[in-house]
C-alpha cells in the first residue's frame, strides 16, 4: 500500500522493478561502511532490501547514512537497479536488486537494543517479554504473527463460504462452573456483584442454536485462571463453532476438510496423511496410553499380562494378583542403549507416573522365534524364561537389535508411564519426523469421572456434553460406564480441538446436574437461562472449539504458544512489559465497593 513516505515496500522489489524511482521507509537492519560506499539493509513489514549510498551524486544522503545505526528509522528515495553481476544474494527475495539512494532523511534514532534484532540468537525470556515490541521485530517472531493472521483469515473465509455466521459474544458474563477458575470482575453499578470473563462461549453458542443461527463461528477470546505451561495461557484464543441438526460424523468430516485445506494452503511443504484416522477413547488408551497420540512413529503398547501369568518374577506376580496389568513397547534399534542409559530411562519413568521399568534387549541374528537365552539381556534376566521372552518379543513385533520396555502397575499408571516413555524413546532414537503433520480424531470419551475426595461425579468435558443415546439408561444405574458423544482432534501428540454433541433436552440436562450433585435450586440459579431455553424448541446441536494459539504453534514449528501470541504472559501470569498485574488506588477500590482483607500486602508489580 502506498503512503506519503512509501511508494513501495522494501520486501516487494524485484528485477522487474529495475529503473523505477521509489520512496521507501523502514528500520536499519544492518549497516556496512565500505569507505566511500555505505550499504544499508532497510527492513519493513514486507521484508529487506539493500540500499547503496554513494557520495558521488548523493552527498546529503550519504551524510545521513554515515550517522545512522541499527534500528534507526529511515526514509530513502532512490532508483531500483540490478546488483552488479556476482554480488546477487540468492538468500534474499530482493537479492537481485538494490536501491541506489538519491535522498535520505532520519525519521527517528534508536537506543542500542538490549538484544540483537537482526540475529536469531537466544535471549532470556523475561528480557524478550519486557521488550516485546523489539522482540516482535525479529524475523522469526514477525513471520509467526503473519502466519497467525493467515490462519485466521483462512478460517474466516473457509467457514463463511460454507454458510457460517460469525457472531461476537459478551466478555462480561455470569460465573458458572465449567472446570477452571474464573477471572472475576466487580460491578461498580451493582455493589457486591461480579461478572466473570468467559472460559469459553459454551452456553452462549448453545443459546445461538436455540436462536436459529444454525451455523455459528467466532474467533473467541477466552480466560481461565489456571496454572500455566508451554501450551497454556491465562487468556487465549479459540475457533469456536456450533452447528444445529448434526451428528458426530458431520462435525468430524467438516473439521477434517478445514484442517486439510488449511495445512495444504499454509504449510504446503509438510506431508499430511489423510484421511485422518479415528480412534475411540478406549482404543487410543490401549494402543498409545494416551488420548493425545503422536502417530509420527510406532511403538504401540501391547498387553503381555497373559504371557506372564505364571512368571517367577515377584513384581509381575504381585501386580497381576492386585488386578494390575503388564504392558510393553518395542523401541526399534534400542538394544544398543547402555546400562547407564537404561538407568536414566528408569529415573525418567518415575517422573511420568511409573514406579520403574523392565527392559529386554534383543541381540544376535535370525527370527526372534529362534532367540537363545544368551541373545537377550535384561537386569531381570534370571527371572525371565526364554519362552516368555520369545512370546513377548513376538507380540511386541520386536526384531533383533530392538529394546522391549515393560511397565507393571495398575492400568492408569501403566498408560501414563508408557505414554511418557514412548515419547521419550522417539526423541532419543530420532524417530520423530518433523516434516509430517499426523492428525487423528479420538471419540467416545467417558462422560463422567468419579471424584473420590468430594464423593461425586465430575464431567470429563463439561456439563453440557450429551451421553450416547444407547447409554442414557446407565445414567441411573452405572454412570461410570456412560460414553459421551465427545470428540477431540489431535495433531502430532497435541490436542488442538475438542467438542461434543450437546444436551438439548431439559430432562437430560437436569439428570446430568443431579449426577454432578448440583441441586435443582443451584441449577436454576446458575443455569436457569439454559434450562428454560431448552423448553422453547431447542434443536439437536453440537460444536467444537479449536485452540488457535496451539494450532498456529504447530504450524509454525514452535514448542511454546507464547511464540505465536503478540503480547503473552509469563508462566506466573504476569506481564513484564506493562507491569501487570498491578496495584490500584484505594479510591478505585472504594468505587468498586471492595477492599483487601486485613493483612493482605500486594506483591510488587512484575
Class by helix and strand content?
Answer: alpha+beta
Estimate the helix proportion, in percent: 25-40%
CATH evolutionary superfamily of the domain at 297-428: GAD-like domain
Please state the CA-atom Rg, rounded to the nearest Å. 30 Å
Low-confidence stretches: none
Shape type = globular
CATH level-3 fold name of the domain at 297-428: Gyrase A, domain 2
| N→C terminal distance | 39 Å
The top-level CATH class of the domain at 297-428 is Alpha Beta
Mean pLDDT: 95
| Number of E-state strands | 22
The CATH architecture term of the domain at 297-428 is 2-Layer Sandwich
Largest beta sheet, briefly? 8 strands, mixed
Q: Count of helical segments?
A: 16
The spatial strand order of the largest sheet comes to: 6-9-10-22-21-20-17-11
Strand content: 15-25%
Descriptive account of the structure:
The chain has 606 residues and is an alpha+beta fold. Among the domains are: 10-108, Beta Barrel (OB fold (Dihydrolipoamide Acetyltransferase, E2P)); 297-428, GAD-like domain (Gyrase A, domain 2). 28% of the residues lie in helices and 23% in strands. The protein contains 16 helices and 22 strands. The chain has helices at residues 59-67, 125-130, 132-135, 139-160, 202-210, 248-266, 281-288, 314-321, 339-351, 386-396, 411-428, 474-477, 506-515, 520-533, 548-556, 586-591; strands at 21-34, 37-44, 47-53, 73-82, 97-108, 165-166, 184-186, 194-196, 215-223, 235-244, 278-280, 302-303, 325-331, 358-362, 376-377, 403-409, 439-443, 448-451, 456-459, 486-491, 494-501, 541-547. Strands 6-9-10-22-21-20-17-11 form an 8-stranded mixed beta sheet, sandwiched between helices. A 5-stranded mixed barrel has the order 1-2-3-5-4. Strands 12-13-16-14-15 form a 5-stranded antiparallel beta sheet. It is globular. The model has no long low-confidence stretch (mean pLDDT 95).
Amino acid at each position: 500500500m502506498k503512503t506519503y513516505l512509501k511508494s513501495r515496500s522494501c520486501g516487494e522489489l524485484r528485477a522487474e522493478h529495475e529503473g523505477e524511482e521509489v520512496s521507501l521507509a523502514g528500520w536499519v537492519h544492518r549497516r556496512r561502511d565500505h569507505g566511500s560506499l555505505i550499504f544499508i539493509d532497510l527492513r519493513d513489514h514486507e521484508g529487506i532490501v539493500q540500499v547503496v549510498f554513494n557520495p558521488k551524486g548523493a552527498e546529503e544522503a550519504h551524510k545521513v547514512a554515515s550517522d545512522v545505526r541499527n534500528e534507526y528509522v529511515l526514509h530513502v528515495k532512490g532508483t531500483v537497479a540490478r546488483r552488479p553481476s556476482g554480488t546477487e544474494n540468492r538468500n534474499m527475495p530482493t537479492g537481485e536488486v538494490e536501491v541506489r539512494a538519491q535522498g535520505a532523511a532520519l525519521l527517528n534514532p534508536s537506543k542500542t537494543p538490549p538484544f540483537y534484532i537482526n540475529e536469531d540468537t537466544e535471549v532470556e525470556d523475561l528480557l524478550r517479554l519486557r521488550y516485546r515490541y523489539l522482540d516482535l521485530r525479529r524475523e522469526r517472531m514477525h513471520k509467526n504473527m503473519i502466519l497467525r493472521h493467515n490462519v485466521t483469515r483462512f478460517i474466516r473465509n473457509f467457514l463463511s463460504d460454507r454458510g457460517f455466521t460469525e457472531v461476537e459474544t459478551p466478555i462480561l458474563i455470569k460465573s458458572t462452573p465449567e472446570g477452571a477458575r474464573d477471572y472475576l470482575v466487580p460491578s461498580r453499578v451493582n455493589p457486591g456483584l461480579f461478572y466473570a470473563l468467559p472460559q469459553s462461549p459454551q452456553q452462549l453458542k448453545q443459546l445461538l442454536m436455540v436462536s436459529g443461527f444454525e451455523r455459528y463461528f467466532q474467533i473467541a477470546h477466552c480466560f481461565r485462571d489456571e496454572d500455566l505451561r508451554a501450551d497454556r495461557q491465562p487468556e487465549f484464543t479459540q475457533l469456536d463453532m456450533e452447528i444445529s441438526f448434526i451428528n458426530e460424523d458431520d462435525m468430524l468430516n467438516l473439521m477434517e476438510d478445514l484442517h486439510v485445506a488449511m495445512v495444504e494452503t499454509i504449510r504446503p511443504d509438510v506431508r499430511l496423511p489423510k484421511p485422518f484416522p479415528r480412534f475411540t477413547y478406549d482404543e487410543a488408551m490401549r494402543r498409545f496410553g494416551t488420548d493425545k497420540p503422536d502417530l509420527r512413529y510406532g511403538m504401540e503398547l501391547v498387553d503381555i499380562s497373559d504371557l506372564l501369568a505364571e512368571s517367577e518374577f515377584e513384581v509381575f506376580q504381585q501386580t497381576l494378583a492386585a488386578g494390575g496389568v503388564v504392558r510393553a513397547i518395542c523401541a526399534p534399534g534400542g538394544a544398543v542403549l547402555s546400562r547407564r542409559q537404561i538407568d536414566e530411562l528408569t529415573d525418567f519413568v518415575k517422573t511420568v507416573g511409573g514406579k520403574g521399568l523392565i527392559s529386554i534387549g534383543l541381540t544376535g541374528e535370525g527370527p526372534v522365534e529362534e532367540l537363545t537365552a544368551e541373545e537377550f539381556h535384561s537386569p531381570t534376566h534370571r527371572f525371565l524364561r526364554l519362552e516368555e521372552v520369545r512370546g513377548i518379543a513376538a507380540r511386541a513385533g520386536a526384531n533383533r537389535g530392538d529394546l522391549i520396555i515393560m511397565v507393571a502397575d495398575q492400568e492408569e499408571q501403566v498408560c501414563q508411564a508408557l505414554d511418557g516413555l514412548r515419547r521419550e524413546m522417539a526423541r532419543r532414537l530420532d524417530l520423530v519426523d518433523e516434516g509430517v503433520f499426523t492428525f487423528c480424531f479420538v471419540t467416545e470419551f467417558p462422560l463422567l469421572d468419579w471424584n473420590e475426595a468430594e464423593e461425586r461425579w465430575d464431567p470429563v468435558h463439561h456439563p453440557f456434553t450429551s451421553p450416547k443415546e444407547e447409554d442414557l439408561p446407565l445414567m441411573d444405574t452405572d454412570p461410570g460406564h456412560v460414553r459421551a458423544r465427545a470428540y477431540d482432534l489431535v495433531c502430532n501428540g497435541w490436542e488442538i480441538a475438542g467438542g461434543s454433541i450437546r444436551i438439548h433436552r431439559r430432562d437430560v440436562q437436569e439428570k446430568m446436574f443431579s449426577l454432578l450433585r448440583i441441586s435443582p435450586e443451584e441449577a436454576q440459579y446458575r443455569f436457569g437461562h439454559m434450562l428454560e431455553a431448552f423448553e422453547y424448541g431447542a434443536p439437536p446441536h453440537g460444536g467444537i472449539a479449536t485452540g488457535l494459539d496451539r494450532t498456529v504453534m504447530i504450524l509454525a514449528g514452535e514448542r511454546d504458544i507464547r511464540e505465536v501470541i503478540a503480547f503473552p504472559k509469563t508462566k506466573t501470569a504476569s506481564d513484564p512489559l506493562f507491569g501487570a498485574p498491578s496495584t490500584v488506588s484505594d479510591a478505585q477500590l472504594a468505587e468498586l465497593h471492595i477492599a483487601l482483607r486485613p493483612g493482605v500486602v500486594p506483591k510488587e508489580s512484575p
